[in-house]
């Protein structure tokens, strides 16, 4: 049941963010969604299981606020973007609101790495619509992720 709720919440949140004109409009749209996928939103939706395990890339020096807020601002994956982490999990609140992605970052061969929570406002899905034709990017740098508080098991207590 929890996996279904997480998948449903993620699907709705990602579908809405793809069509939002700004981060603020994205959040307002999410809060008023009925929970039913339309044909258009279903085409752009992703399930949680398709995101978990994906690499997270930074757009680095290419970041520009206007492009970030434009739903079509980063339409295609850029091979110059640097991989800075891996998506480990998705966090939702008890009221069903999307909080963010748990991202494993830093370390080497799983030694010394940390898990942090990246807010959905700092995440974009880029590429063609389809299960295997997308990448997950953030406007945050590796250094910014490393400065975030670690979301270890005590975080949830």
Helix-strand string = HHHHEHEEEEEH
Largest sheet: 6 strands, mixed
**Average pLDDT metric:** 74
Summing up helix and strand content along with how strands pair, one would put the structural category as alpha+beta
CATH fold group: SH3 type barrels
Count of distinct structural domains: 1
- What fraction of the residues are assigned to beta strands by DSSP? 15-25%
Order of strands side by side in the largest beta sheet? Answer: 4-3-2-1-6-5
The CATH class: Mainly Beta
The total beta strand count reads 6
Gross morphology: globular
* Rg calculated over all Cα atoms: 15 Å
The number of helical runs is: 6
Helix content: 25-40%
How far is the N terminus from the C terminus?
21 Å
User: Runs with pLDDT <50, length 5+?
Assistant: 14-32
State the CATH architecture: Roll
CATH superfamily: PRC-barrel domain
Pfam families: PRC
Protein name: PRC-barrel domain-containing protein
Signal peptide: 1-23
Keywords: Signal
């Amino acid at each position: 049941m929890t996996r279904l709720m997480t998948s449903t919440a993620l699907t709705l949140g990602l579908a809405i963010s793809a069509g939002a004109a700004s981060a603020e409009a994205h959040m307002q749209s999410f809060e008023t969604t009925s929970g039913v996928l339309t044909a258009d939103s279903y085409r752009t939706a992703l399930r949680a299981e398709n995101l978990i395990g994906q690499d997270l890339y930074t757009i680095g020096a290419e970041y520009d606020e206007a492009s970030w807020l434009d739903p079509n601002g980063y339409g295609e994956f850029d091979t110059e973007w640097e991989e800075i982490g891996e998506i480990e999990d998705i966090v939702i609140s008890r009221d069903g609101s999307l909080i963010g992605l748990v991202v494993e970052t830093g370390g080497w061969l799983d030694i010394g790495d940390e898990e942090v929570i990246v807010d959905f406002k700092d995440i974009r899905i880029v590429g063609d619509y389809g299960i295997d034709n997308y990448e997950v990017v953030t406007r945050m740098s590796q250094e910014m992720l490393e400065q975030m508080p670690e979301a270890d098991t005590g975080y949830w207590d």
